[in-house]
Amino acid sequence: MHRPAQCGACGSDVLWTITDAGKRLAVNARPDPEGNTAAYRDGTGTWRSRRPTDELPMAPWERLYMPHVATCSARRPAEPPETTRCLGVINLADERRRRGDRR
Predict the structure, then answer these.
(1) Is 10 exposed, middle or buried (0-12, 13-18, 19+ CB in 10 A)?
(2) What is the pLDDT confidence band of residue 77, given thresholds at 50, 70 and 90?
(3) Using CA atoms, how far apart are residues 57 and 11, in angstroms rounded to an integer?
(4) What are the DSSP calls for the chain, one per residue?
(5) Could you tell me which residues come within 8 angstroms of residue 38 by beta carbon, excluding any fewer than 6 positions away?
(6) What would the pLDDT profile of 31-76 be if each residue is shown by its tens digit?
(7) Which domain holds residue 65?
(8) I want to staple 29 with a disulfide (CB 3.0 to 4.6 A). Which of 4, 23, 48, 93 is the partner?
(9) C-alpha to C-alpha distance for 49 and 42, rounded to whole angstroms
(10) 64: closest CA among 21, 24, 13, 15?
(11) pTM of the model
């Protein structure tokens, strides 16, 4: 049986799939009912993936998987970025310290 690949960032097991558009997409190795990607293995053993729609729902041979980028622990920021400053506004004390001013 084919072993799953490892995520280079976090080390989790992933399956590399080919989307309908021909792009590569990593999904978590285990099926997930909360996922939004239907994946299956074709006759050559290649993992294929697509987004199920109302017009083209999941087929019996497909399973739902979660895209790995949505759950990769290495790609998520540890803490939310600071949002208290407005764009284009600087803290003068920080700027003076950076320049070496003593005022």
Answers:
(1) middle
(2) low
(3) 32
(4) -PPPEE-TTT--EEEEEEETTS-EEEEESS--TT--EEEEE-TTS-EEEE---SSS---TT-EEE-BGGGT-TTTS-SSPPP--SPTT---HHHHHHHHT---
(5) 49, 50, 51, 52, 58, 59, 62, 63, 64, 65
(6) 999 999 999 999 999 999 999 999 999 999 999 999 999 998 887 6
(7) 5-99
(8) 4
(9) 10
(10) 15
(11) 0.69
Provide the domain count of the chain: 1
In angstroms, rounded to a whole number, what is the distance separating the alpha carbons of residues 67 and 75?
Answer: 13
- CA neighbor of 66 nearest in space, from 8, 13, 1, 10: 13
Give the number of residues written for the chain: 103
Q: What are phi and psi of 98, to 5 degrees?
A: -65, -40
Token digits for 27? 């999904």
